[in-house]
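question for whoever is on the cluster today: can someone run the full assembly for these? two chains, 912 residues total. i dont have access anymore since they changed the login thing
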Amino acid sequence: MQEFSVVGKRLPRVEGHDKVTGKALYVADLKLPNMLYGKVLRSPIPHGKVLNVDTSRARKLPGVKAVITGEDTSKVKWGAFINDMHVLAFDKVRFVGDEVAAVAAVDEATAQEAVDLIKVDYEELPAVFDVFEAMEPGAPILHEGNNIALHQKFVKGDFEGGMKEAAYVFEDKFTTPIVWHAYLETMGALASYSLSGKLTIWLSTQTLFMARQRIARALGMRIADVRLIQPNVGGGFGGKSCDEPTAMICGLLAQKTGRPVRLINSREEEFQASRPRVATNIFLKMGFRKDGTIAFKDTKVVNDNGAYSAKAPATTGVTLTRVDTLYRFKNIRGEALLVYTNKVPTGAYRGFGNPPMHFAVEQMMDMAAEATGLDPTEVRLRNATQVGDVSVHGWRVNSCALSDSIKKAAELMNWKEARTNKKPHQGFGMGCFIHVSGKRHFGNYDGSSAVIKINEDGKATIFSGEGEIGQGAFTVLSQIAAEELGVPLKDVEISVGDTDSTTYCHGAYASRLTYIAGNAVKAAAADAKKQLFKMAAEMLEADPEDLTSREAKIFVKGNPSKAVTVSDVARGCLYREGGFPIVGRGAWDPPSELQTKDTRDGNTSGAYSYGTQMCQVEVDPETGKVKVLNFVAAHDSGKVINPMLGEGQIEGALQQGIGYALTEEMAFEDGKVMNPNFADYKILGADDMPEKIKIHFVETCMEPTGPFGAKGLGEPGLVATSPAIANAIYNAVGVRIKGLPMTPEKILNALKEKRANKQ
Amino acid sequence: MKRKIVLNVNNDNYEVEVEPGRLLADVIREDIGLTGTKKGCEIGVCGACTVLLDGKAVSSCLMLAVHAVGKKITTIEGLMKNGELDPLQKAFVDYGAFQCGFCTPGVLMASKAMLNENPHATEHEIREGLNGNLCRCTGYAKMIDAIKSVAGR
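^ ran it for u. tokens below:
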């Protein structure tokens, strides 16, 4: 195995000291001279025509510097996949929270007062909140034509033949709700407009360059006339991908006033109008042969888009197909519908569309285990995808330690023995998962690029526009650069994301940064190293091919005593006639393919991560309350660049995944979010987490295309969590819960039904 | 009507003019300019705004600035001593006890108050003690390990 000096080490975060001392600045901490404060007026009704917006009283309020409505906008519609959003409503409002007008004033209180003085006349329209009702003839139409935003359908393999081969067939409906990212920092922007025509926005975002494109489109500007700078970001989990118009509104207010404007969402606004996880209805039918192998799968997905299309069109395709490369599915049929309703638009949230389908399929795997008499681990091992497989959608599996992860998790949980000797009302359950490392879906490009300059003191500065949102990208990318350059981590620093000073980067989503940005940074470091070695070779009177570097020293392999330092070389290169600074550049686009539109064929990602989660739960039969006692996660992420940060990703994902399984749900009444705060929308506290959590990285299979063998690990931690818990509940008390969250009420009802059926 | 008050924050006195209804969190962040204290939920549930008042943890988003007059306020900016990280801060760095860092100042202040009161808190006590602080990134595991490492001394 390759020996590393920086990669694979449990190193503290490069930005750590700023974050423990309060010095890390987030957008709400930033202030510019003469700054104004923005506030947004939102629709109180779920569906209606905007007849008139009277801003006269608001404008007269002392301290108000601008009031804008839809009439002040370009009226260009925008969106990630379907252009159906506006910056401010000019024709209709389509959900409670839809942006209608905005104010900039000298302080927040004045801005809020002005918002309250704006009078909007609506013609209320009938609204629809249920996806099935929204597809009925005569349903209220949100946009044009009908309410179906997307329809996908395919048949693969010998579906009819697979049906005939099946000895056991299971059919069920599973549902999952809209849940919310609940990052601790609400979204916000600080915009400053210069008369030269440049709009600079410090934005709480995880996708700088894509945000810039959308802002430019919506404001009718040239892309390069918008500059986005990423301050520290207080968590994103998919929610800060510029799929809602905060940045556009803030930018427009800055343009109108000629003064800097800061616009920060309140917690309630976030719940009402950000872009939470898509709610799903999954109709699943699976057939198994006598030996437990999968004969066929038939899936229909009906997803709730909400009022506009953010990322839900892509999410829906993921719900339908990603699981198909977890096992060796051959004969499958799939159909997905994405339907508009008058609720908050939905979008990207950690795991994208993947967790809901795992909740369904992984329960059916357990049903098959029970029917065939095989252990749940055995059914999965018999179907598990292996290295070298090409799946039914054409996904090429270069690395896969799924089987190893099943065995390792079972060992860590002492699975067979613990299940056999379990206490009453306790149960053990498992779930396996697949996830991607990047997803090619924004044009035919999923690459990354980076520049590394070597300062004259030998310190390397990475310029990357991918960005840090808490996931540890700065540290991991710095480690990769340090390893490649042969310098200690302290000799590497990384720039903040800034669209003016970094090259184009897609940003943080789809667990793509370690794998894709890591390869780009590695390539940039290799380029810088090549230049360093060329100069060092002159200084050492050696051949560049014979050189190596370690601990910031460059020397002929096998002869470290005769060395020059990186700093010597960087200075030597610069301070001479015709000198130049050492600047490395790197770009890398993974070996993936754009999927065909309807049939979803094509290798969507360059690398796939796998893993197994197991848990032990206790169900109180009197209250229906579930307590997760013990959790094991054995993940295949290839080579883990920083195991301490890697564990942190999975531990954090488990907090979200257990919440998704047991407690979290956005509640709606007539389209209005009824629990828009942290008191009523409960996320798990320290005391709610299992006391025992074991994280293990199964590093038995390196990803050949990954930087030092690495692949993505940020999102997968919650993909298999809800089915593992569902299966453990079944193992504990014999009831299958098919709708998330698995609340005490649902469990008690199921127990009641079970008792009634027995009698 | 604005009123002139003096607040003692991290051993420095600040004279500020505030409306009687103004929150301590806003005065600390906006008027005094110490932005390490965060606002996460506005209703005293998430703990991001936790500061110490005479050594005890309080939610500064639920407290009026005028009520903090005459008390010793400590914010995250006051946790370092003589240019050295507090043992808790150092442990948080070493154990990887934070990710996005937004809840971290509040968690550190709450932990500081917890250990002030109970220097050898057990894991169970630490879990309970952290219940007023929400974190969406870490799952709390490494936070608990970090605090345990300091409590174990």
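summary bc i know u wont read the tokens: Chain B has two domains: 3-77, 87-151. The longest strand of chain B covers residues 3-9.
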